[in-house]
Design a protein that fits this description.
By secondary structure, this protein is mostly helical. It is built from 19 helices and two strands.
Length: 405
């Protein structure tokens, strides 16, 4: 454990250097908030470590495989689970990281995901929004506990969250953030190829329908890169569901979903979602467990967070939300498509509340971004209306003064 504590101190110092670089690029960057978030996130590293000592945890298998399997480092290179082994191999076998240290390193990767999530939100939405009468919405989003719990350990959760947030941050200015875009794309694709497909489709649709005037060459570069990439890796993506070479993808996906759903529904926290209508599948994936079906103490804590998700969702159930979406920019539409496509796919294969709690942490930030942007747009429009009204009144008063004189 002392080695892990020492490593965390080193990572903290490295993080301060990153903060200095980011502050030069973004005047709004708050080092104080991000440092608080650092210690908050590593509190969940401790929580997850204690949880893993007495509960089944994939992190133990991820730690054992690179040491015990007779493979060289690059023999682990591939998509899915093996890519996590590839990432951890040099730290475990070359640098001698023990279990606590590699857990801390991956927790740091998860923390960097929150740093780039902060940049993603704050750069695109400079307006402060308060919810529930007193809470700053961005701060609330950044400190949701379930998001930190599942990104504070050795596994897929931390690096793919980092990849998604790097991609989301970089897509606003691809030319100057190309390295971040490439690293984010690699992490997403090699950890979860199907999620890369959702991100690519969401980005293309966003650029096709966004309100911004984007140069033809920039659009062409995005389309060729992402669509070309999807064509090249289609077999790997379909291979996730065993559909490579399938003659009927729809039927094949239905069979895969039924088998996967049945296997995940056999545990104590299983839910029979196969017979649910689509709206109820979405509700289960987004907002359950709630208090009535929470699996254990972790489930109860998650239920509080899910209730907040639900209350935030109610804020977009307005007549003008569809109009907002139609007029929204590339990043809003990209976020919405990524969130909906991921939700749609996962609702057909998830039948275990524990798995649902972990899997949805990948994509919920895209939903939060859409909600946040909608509320900020409404506030901005209100400010503009008040300014116009004030300007009109000032003009009327000046006119009255001229007439009186």
């Amino acid at each position: 454990m002392l080695g892990a504590v020492f490593l965390i101190l080193i990572l903290f110092l490295i993080t301060q250097g990153l903060f200095s670089s980011l502050f030069k690029k973004h005047a709004f960057f708050s080092k104080e908030l991000m440092n608080i978030l650092f210690f908050y996130h590593f509190f969940f590293w401790v929580v997850y470590y204690l949880y893993a000592l007495s509960n089944p945890s994939d992190s133990l298998a991820y730690f054992d495989r690179p040491q015990n399997e007779a493979k060289s480092w690059f023999e682990f290179f591939g998509t899915g689970t093996t890519f996590i082994d590839f990432l951890s191999y040099p730290f475990i076998n070359f640098l001698g990281f023990n279990y606590e240290m590699i857990m801390a390193f991956f927790a740091w990767l998860g923390y960097l995901g929150f740093v780039y999530a902060y940049l993603f939100f704050r750069e695109n939405i400079p307006i402060k929004i308060t919810v529930f009468n007193r809470f700053d919405l961005l701060t609330l989003i950044l400190f949701f506990p379930n998001m930190h719990f599942w990104t504070a350990s050795l596994g897929k959760g931390a690096p793919i969250f980092l990849g998604l947030m790097l991609f989301a941050y970089a897509i606003k200015n691809t030319k100057s953030r190309l390295i971040a875009l490439i690293i984010g794309s690699i992490l997403i694709y090699y950890i979860r190829p199907h999620v890369f497909m959702f991100v690519a489709v969401g980005t293309v649709l966003g650029y096709m329908s966004g309100k911004e005037k984007i140069s033809f060459w920039k659009k062409a570069l995005i389309y060729i890169s992402l669509i070309g990439g999807l064509v090249l890796v289609q077999d790997t993506i379909l291979g996730v569901a065993g559909l490579e070479g399938s003659e009927n993808l729809v039927e094949g996906f239905e069979d895969f979903s039924e088998d996967r759903s049945a296997s995940l529904g056999t545990s104590g926290s299983g839910v029979s979602m196969a017979s649910y209508p689509l709206p109820l599948k979405f509700f289960t994936f987004w907002f359950r467990p709630l208090f009535f079906d929470a699996p254990g103490i972790l489930g109860l804590i998650t239920s509080v967070e899910n209730l907040m998700y639900l209350l935030l969702f109610f804020k977009i159930l307005k007549k003008d939300f569809i109009k907002f979406l139609i007029k929204s920019n590339v990043i809003v539409k990209m976020s919405l498509v990524v969130f909906l496509l991921s939700s749609f796919a996962m609702t057909f294969v998830m039948s275990n509340l524990g798995i649902i709690m972990r899997q949805k942490s990948m994509v919920m930030y895209f939903a939060f971004f859409v909600i946040y942007y909608y509320l900020a747009q409404k506030k901005y429009d209100k400010i503009l209306r008040l300014k116009k009204l004030k300007s009109k009144r000032d003009m009327e008063m000046r006119s009255e003064n001229i007439v009186t004189e």
